[in-house]
Amino acid sequence: MRTPLVMGNWKLNGTKESVSALIKGIEAAADSAKNVEVVVCPPTIFIEQVANLVADNSIEFGAQDVSTNVSGAFTGETSPVMVKEFGAKYSLVGHSERRQYHNETDAVVAAKFVAIQANALVPVLCIGETLEERETDKTFAVVETQLKAVIDVAGIDALENSVIAYEPVWAIGTGKVASSEQAQDVHAHIRTWLAEQSKVVAAKVQILYGGSVKASSAKELFAQPDIDGGLVGGAALLVEEFVGIIEGAK
Ligand code: PEP
C-alpha cells in the first residue's frame, strides 16, 4: 500500500515568526496522523529553521527547487547537497511556476530530477496541463510528454524512488479545484501508462494531486483510488486548512 502524503509548498512566503507558528500549529496533527506523511517545502532560507523545528516531531521537509550543480560558480543557486546536509528528504522539480517563470524546459527538469536523486533526495516531479491544453483534449499527451522527458534521461526504474504530483496549471492558485473525477481520471491514466513500462513503478509511485486543495475538498480527492495525497500551496500557509487536509488523508 502507498503511504498517503500531504505536502505543503510554501512558495515565496513566510517570516521567521510565521514559520515557527505554522510548524507549531500543525505538528500535533502531523504526529497524530500516524499513517500520513506530512512534508513542508519552505523557501530555502528557512530550511535550517524548519530543520530545527521538526527535529522532535514527525514532519519532514523538502526544497522547492535545487540546482543541477552541486557546487561552483552558479550565483544564487542552491545545491542539492546543501539541502540534504540540513536533513531535507525531498525536492520539488518541474513546478509549473518554475517552468513558466524560470523557463525550465523538460530537459532542465530531467537534469534536475537526476541531480536530486544523485544526492539522495526524493524528487517530487510536478506535471500538468494548461487550460488551453485541457480544452483541446491534450491533457494525457501533455503529462505523458512531461513524464517521458524524465524517463528518457533517468530511466523508468528511477521513478520507483520518486513522487509524481499531477497539478493542472489551471487549478494552481486559482481557487479552481479539479473535481475528484477529473483528477482521478488523469491519475489513473498516469498509472496505467507507467504500468506499460514497469508494473513495480506503477504500483509503488505516489501520485499526488495539486491545485487549490482545501480542507473541504481533501477527503473526497484523497479517497480516489489513484490519488495518494496532495501538494498544497495556498492552504498550506493556514494552520486550520492544512490540519484539515492532513485529517482528510487519514
Ligand atoms: C502548488 O503550488 O503546488 C499548488 C498546488 O498551489 P495551490 O494549492 O495554491 O493551488
Please name the defining characteristics of this protein:
250 residues, alpha/beta, TIM Barrel, globular, binds phosphoenolpyruvate
In short:
The chain is of the alpha/beta class.
What does this molecule look like?
This protein is of the alpha/beta class. It has a single domain (5-248), classed as Aldolase class I (TIM Barrel, Alpha-Beta Barrel), CATH 3.20.20. The chain is 44% helix and 15% strand. The protein contains eleven helices and eight strands. The chain has helices at residues 16-32, 47-53, 80-85, 96-101, 106-118, 131-135, 139-154, 180-195, 199-204, 215-222, 239-248, and strands spanning 5-9, 37-41, 60-63, 90-93, 122-127, 163-166, 206-210, 229-232. The chain has an eight-stranded parallel β-barrel with strand order 1-2-3-4-5-6-7-8, surrounded by six helices. Helix 10 links the parallel strand 7 (206-210) and strand 8 (229-232). Helix 1 packs parallel to helix 11 (239-248) and helix 10 packs parallel to helix 11 (239-248). It is globular, with a radius of gyration of 17 Å. It starts with a strand and ends with a helix. 44% of the residues are buried. Bound molecules: phosphoenolpyruvate. The site of phosphoenolpyruvate has 13 residues, from strand 8.
